[in-house]
Specification:
Distance between the termini: 38 Å
Order of helices and strands: HHHH
Helix content: over 70%
Number of strands: 0
Structural class: mainly alpha
Number of helices: 4
Length: 137
């Protein structure tokens, strides 16, 4: 529970920070002189929720009673459904079936690449540790 609360606070902080940076970028690069307060709050809360979501859901990979395939499936569907609903509802993904399909296709490819990168990294680290243990004996 302590890990969940700690990661939640970190995710909320970074989500808010990213939301603020996005607002500054919209003002600076978009040459906006006036911000829509409702849109600002909506996007800020979306960024905060996204930050929380992406820092808490990796806890699925720390459930030792589940196989890696189960952890991955649980994480994938939780992230895709929660973030998909958020992004579509807020308007980060334009309304329409084709936009939603493109979003999910891109998200799936990105998820697969990131997952593969982490998998290869940790497999390599595990191999190094096993090799070190072999040299100690």
């Amino acid at each position: 529970m302590k890990t969940f609360v700690t990661r939640s606070m970190i995710g909320i902080f970074f989500g808010g920070f990213i939301g603020l940076l996005m607002t500054y970028a919209a003002i600076y690069f978009g040459e906006l002189t006036v911000l829509d307060s409702g849109l600002f709050v909506q996007n800020s809360l979306g960024a905060i929720f996204s930050g929380w979501l992406f820092t808490v859901t990796p806890l699925f990979f720390e459930i030792d009673s589940l196989k890696l395939s189960q952890q991955t499936a649980l994480h994938f569907f939780t992230v895709m459904i929660a973030y998909g609903v958020l992004a579509y509802g807020i308007g980060w993904v334009p309304q329409g079936t084709s936009s939603a399909l493109i979003f999910f296709a891109i998200a799936f490819v990105m998820y697969a690449l990131i997952w593969l990168g982490f998998y290869l990294y940790f497999r390599n680290e595990s191999k190094k540790m096993n090799d070190d243990l072999q040299h100690i004996q």
